[in-house]
Amino acid sequence: MVSDKEPTILVFACNWCSYAGADLAGVSRLEMPPHCRVVRVMCSARVRPEFVIAALSRGLDGVVILGCHPGDCHYSEGNHYTRRRALLLKELLEHVGIEPERFQLRWISASEGAKFAQTITEITGEIEALDRRREPPPEG
Amino acid sequence: MEQELREIVRKLLEEGAIEYFIGYAEGVEPLHTTPCFIERGEQVQALVWSPLCPYNLARYLHQMKDGAGKVGLVVKGCDARAIVELVKGNQIQRERVVVVGIPCQGQVDLAKLEDAFEGVEAVEGKGDTFLVTVGEKVHSVEKERLLREKCFSCRHPISFEYDFVLGEMSPLVYGSESEFAAVEELERLPVEERRAFWRAQFERCIRCYACRDICYACYCQECIFESKAPRWLEKTTTPLDNQTYHLIRAWHMVGRCIDCGECERVCPVGIPLRRLYKKVEKEVEQLFDYQAGMRVEEVPPLVSFQIDDLVIEESS
Amino acid sequence: MPRRRIGVFVCHCGNNIGGVVRVPEVVEYARRLPNVVYAEGSLYACSEEGLSSIREKITAYGLNRVVVASCTPRTHETLFRNACEEAGLNRYLFEFVNIREHCSWIHMRAPDQATEKAKSLIKMGVAKSYHLEPQEELESEVYPEALVIGAGVTGMTAALNLAHQGLKVHLVEREKELGGLLSEVNKLFPTHRDAKEILDPLVEGVKNHSLVTIYLGSEVEGVEGFIGNFKVRITKVEEEIKVGTIIVATGARELKPIGQYGYPAMANVLTQLELEERLKEGVDEWQSVVMINCVGARGADRSYCGRFCCHTAMKNAILIKEGNPAAKIYILHQDVMASGVEAERYYRGAMELGVRFIRYDPTNPPQILGERQAEEIKVYHALIGREVILPAQLVVLTTPLVPQADNERLSKMLKVPLGSEGFFLEAHLKLRPVEFATDGVYLCGSARHPSDIRESVSQAYAASAKAAIPMREGVVRVEAITAFSQERLCNGCGNCLLVCPFGAVELKDCERGAQVAWVSVAQCKGCGCCVAACPNGAMQQRGFSDQQLMIMIEALAEGVSSGLR
Amino acid sequence: MKTIKKSHLAEWLNRVAQGYDVFGPALDGVVQFKRVNSSDQLVFDYANSVVPPKNLFLPQTECLFAFRREEGLVILEPRGGLERERVLFGIRPCDARSLLLLDKVFNGDLEDTYYQEKRRGTILIGLACPSPPQRTCFCTSLGIDPLSPEGVDILLTGLGDRYLVEVTTEKGEELVGPSQELFFPSAEGEKPKGEKGKSLEGIGEKIGSLWEDGYWRELSRRCLGCGVCTYLCPTCHCFDLTDVGSTLSGKRFRCWDSCMFADFTRMAGGVNPRPTGKERVRQRYFDKFSYFPEQYGVLGCVGCGRCSQYCPMGIDIRTIINEVMARGAK
Asked: Are C151 and C199 in contact (CB under 8 A)?
């Protein structure tokens, strides 16, 4: 997380809502910062928190999980589990000094292309601000 | 009490009620006990009990998982919760375990004891004090001075249904500090300072896996860290690798950690692991009103949800 | 493990990708990735030319994994999978990388960064493809009956179309009568025939067809299941019904512009539909009528255009004018939406008849003058550049159709999305316009967006034709993205069983004597929740395994990771 | 022999630090041998470090080389090597002996350059053990003298407010020479007498006779299979090689490994010749008392007692030695 480099942000998006929302942002030609990489999963509940931990520990600057709004899950209840996991994981990460901005869970529906663009823009900005503050780690 | 225990175990073994019994025996020095497996009636003399029996023997129940017979063991109140969790996690059947509850009134922190006295031969609990025998002399020391940190938050020994109880199981109530005080102290630090704190801890980790291997809740057939595909964790021990290890492990403690404190006790390089797992415990309790090891019927927090989790989400 | 031979096809999508991302550079990059034996750029990978190139290269280079970097898997995955299959490659050995929606289209002004991003997305896709495994799809039966929700012109058309193909249909209507919104309409644009002329044969048709069961005054209360086997609860019906497909034809309703232009307090301010109710009884002797278009549409509250309200306003203006040629009729509009030959001709006809069209400025809207009822209308006439006062014995507000109030409830029940305006949202505007992303659920008519009769009927035909396909085939293939448990690793804790929303997991005794998880593939819907709940990765998901996802993370992290290693 | 006042030690070490990287016992959660910038960071009130000094010569994680693929070639960039010569202060005689044992391993038929570079580039200042020793110490039972200068370049032995200074090598002389004014000659016979017990005679044969004994299974029931005993053992030296990165570029690391781990001997095909804890526990003690002596002519244990002190379940190597000595056949 060297300050002068551009951040890399991993985004998990559920197939039914958020990935479709991301597609809609594309179809609508909404511009946003190019630092995120969307990985498609069928449901946000597929994302093991271990992925988040591993990604952050491997040097990625942020991880975002996007899912259907609660109540709208294609599989009825997947995002309820996601929400619990995310609540706890965030606490755990923060406890060891990983800023809450680096791991975020957001709800984005298939029609919310604009919200997707806005979310990515917002989170990228937050993470860039953090990276500017952080000291580069010593060479090891 | 030791005699009573020995008699119970002798009877259980001689009646064929259990295949073996897991208890504490004397180690090479008086201060070092060690777990022991008693298989025959005549071995029961080896069984001992003192405030120097830290081991959570429920860990050894992993060994009986694939068998068919019954096993007996002695547990302190804190360790009893491990049995609840093992039953809940479908690792053992309650009826296959004969549980002897032992009314622990606090365990001695060996490091504190060794700092305070040299040449200690025996320690015994008595009311609010420990009686420490050094040579001919017996010192009476306030418990607070020698207790293991986790014993200050002893609170659950009575919730369990024991098969035998040697005396009255009651929590040791000590001090007014919150059991989460050490966690809260960290929480008050700015995020950068917390990062620096844990980085220094993780940097020291030698990844001997003692914390994992001693944990009653680590009953996976094969640990995720041993997986070659995917490789969750490299064998290298950079601070980030070690952070991966500790965070994933802490994640796996969600809803399972009963604060037996064994991980922290066995860490050779003194990483304050309870401050990590207590954080998880605290959040599980506060967010989802769940405590591990209380009742077998309860559904763990990460495999259940409430519609009104939304309220939590919005308030956090 | 046979050596991986990965082929990468990078699509220009004409200028859509190629105009931003430097495709030749990306192809060159892809060629150097581990295990990639072939890479090429393609003008349109989805064209017949592009697809046959993929098929040829699979054979020529012995490719055993194929990566296409182009648009979104949500619309094109099946196409490319089919191409792989046609070339003899298992369809699950294909990996999709989205460099259009997720790259070129959203970074149009940053070609350098978009090119780098495309590379890293492809690197991730290639890394994942290495770990893809061939899969077999499970076939599941489709119950050959359909549920149609809503018995307006759309729903009845769809129901009849299915029934005519010999399929049984359950037609559910909330109201006590069939007909929906159309039953409130007077005459039709542009023919001026009675709405009844359209409606009555449809009503008779569904009533008399032996394969159509009608549930009047009923609503859908609960839906469970997936394509081929939905279980539906309907109010006032005791037994659950079982259907293979569902068509949403719930229509829309006219906006009642409460609080605008004196509505509904002033008795002579009506909506178009209320006017039609009056017109059914004959044209009153109104001497002056002012219609205000775009009330509640194309503004901050509701950004969309009602699409045919202009037609309605013109139709009713002409009907009044024909009944009473002396009447002064003004249509105040923002724009006249009269596209196409018929509407344009109709528009000219209205003007020739003497209907006056005045354009108003939405930032300076018309005002109603009058105390207890409308007397006159004051409007800033944009063309002559000053305010004019128009006599108004009757004021008619032209409002758009708006979504049904309970769309949200139904969308949750069916697990299908709503768009931002509250109408149902189709899987793809152009490629899958009458289907939801959820298999086996279709939509048509004004449930999707305000549609006139012609559109509604065509969509009803389309949706029913689409729905008939799986029902006629009798089986659907279930995508092989189901979960499976690895016996060697499973510790039998049962987390997977507790989180599975479909009851697809159970514990069974295994060889080593312990209990281990077992997944019923037929019941598993592939959400992967159980995989994330499994502490040590004993549970996995086909196509989304821990290994496959982790390798993507690693591919992404490589090169960006801090100097620590 | 010389002496130095304890109050002068800091001054001497600070001078040494100008020419060398100095490592010594410092507090980092627990006592560890760490790089120190000034002698203030050193601690003296310690029996021994938790992690033995082997990690300065065989680091737990060591990058051997970096590799990358370029234009059809694989390019290797070697790593390792010392930037500056080092001084390790405060090593105990048992650990000094352990390095002599590791030398046999890493400087045998094939020289391990990574190890040797560090070994040659490090001057050892030993510190004789205090009396009484730590309760888990038993070096004397293995024939090691806790006051012996064997294996170090300089040995300091506490004498009230002074240290007795034994310089045994030229390298040691290089550290003392430039600071002659801090050192004073010692009187005859000032060196306290060490003790040296009998080494465990015949233990190799005895343990060999117990190969099939039920004792190992008994022991393994208590053993958790963690890596404490091996990682903290000054003579255990097993490692694994691992590549981090992709096939395009990455680094090769050597990392400690432990024969106590279940996957230590697991082969690619899944077969594991030491499938249960019994075989793994047995392996460790056979290695210390049978295989190592067979191969190198000396017992593989130095009696530091770390494994006994830190075993999570209180397994004590002395119990095992006693058991073997009592029950094993010659």
From this structure: no
